[in-house]
Amino acid sequence: MKDLSGTFRPAERIASLGVSEILQIGARASARKAAGHDVITLGAGEPDFDTPDHVKQAAWDAMQAGETKYTALTGTTALKDAIARKFSRENGISYASDEIIACTGAKQVIYNAMMATLDPGDEVIIPTPYWVTYSDIVELCGGIPVLVRCEADQGFRLTADQLRRAITDKTRWLMLNSPSNPSGAAYAAPDLCPLIDVLLENPQVWLMVDDMYEHILYDDFRHVTPAALCPSIAPRTLTINGVSKAFAMTGWRLGYAGGPADLISAMAIIQSQSTSCPSSITQAAAIAALDGPQDFLADRRDSFCQRRDLVVNRLNDTPGLSCRRPEGAFYAFAECNDLLGVQTPEGGVLTTDRALCNWLLETADVAVIPGSAFGLPGYFRISYAASIETLETALTRIEQACRQLSGI
Ligand code: PMP
């Protein structure tokens, strides 16, 4: 509807935020497709598998049984019990019912936590590259994201020295994501212990751990989560997870977290005045996902691993690109600095990773996301949640385009 009054004025808190670049690129790719181009989209962070049938059946059964009303604010007892069992069985952490919250996606978990704890000027340390929502939520809640660059040569992982240097009296949180979106890098116990030691020296800093991709790990890399690794950090750790990625349930909207009861109750206050409980039907489906068979996870992981190897090998064979082999998630984060500043066959010069990604979309019909969108310019992210055939075609197109740029 056209605003005829001329009085619309967005709040200052959204002045520096925009619609996620990932969504914008997705929209441009769709527009090209609609115009008849054969575009391959490797932008979205979404498994290409379907939600398992037993999960869908549980949702149907819940609807038939009339479970279609509001539930308890932080989730049904049955769901919280299933979440507690999951944390205990898979992660070795035990949480009581008042230490668990279920939300409308892990994104809402993070939003609730930051809304409930940040005052203006409070700082949150975010290792870079990061999932862009982290910094945007911090800003939305009046906090200051403190971005710490973690390049490929350090495995995209934050070091204890970097953490120590970033902490100030104003620091409230460190956000850690393993395996990471967008780099795929994961933290093993020897990477985590020194970071936890620094946190133990700085009691004002809490730890937000995003374990969303824990089931997508390769080469026998074992997931370890800080609250289990070091029980002394558990009283100020929020351990976040969800069903979106492991169970291919992105559209169902269910994330959850375990943490100290004081923090969980504060988060519940925010949830009570924004969305109330997560969908009752989704909660029933999530119980089936968490309690049901888990063996298909290994098949899906094997299939992702095959794709990872294909994508990383092909990227490293492409002139001007290099890509670290990620430990997990379904993203490859390729360095493209050697291709920046060179002339395109059309006569333009690509000076930034954003320009390169635009050019790839326009000339090679492949949509990928620039590293700048994740706080680290000079890279781009490929989501390899696509079939081997699609990936082969996309990588051939990328290679041909990059050969044109580098004149090889
Ligand atoms: N954490 C990470 C690292 C993610 O990549 C995503 C989804 N892109 C989420 C959390 C959010 O997941 P959801 O809100 O679907 O539960």
From TrEMBL:
Domain of life of the organism encoding this protein: Bacteria
GO process annotations (BP): amino acid metabolic process
Keyword annotations of the record: Aminotransferase, Pyridoxal phosphate, Transferase
Keyword Acetylation found: no
InterPro entries listed in its UniProt record: Aminotransferase_I/II_large, AspAT/PAT-like, NHTrfase_class1_PyrdxlP-BS, PyrdxlP-dep_Trfase, PyrdxlP-dep_Trfase_major, PyrdxlP-dep_Trfase_small
Catalysed transformations (reactions): L-aspartate + 2-oxoglutarate = oxaloacetate + L-glutamate
Aminotransferase class I/classII large domain location: 38-398
Pfam family for this entry, one: Aminotran_1_2
An example Gene Ontology molecular-function term: pyridoxal phosphate binding
Group of enzyme by EC: transferase
Cofactor annotation: pyridoxal 5'-phosphate
EC number: 2.6.1.-
Family statement: Belongs to the class-I pyridoxal-phosphate-dependent aminotransferase family.
Quaternary structure and partners: Homodimer.
Name assigned to this protein: Aminotransferase
Organism of this sequence: Aquicoccus porphyridii
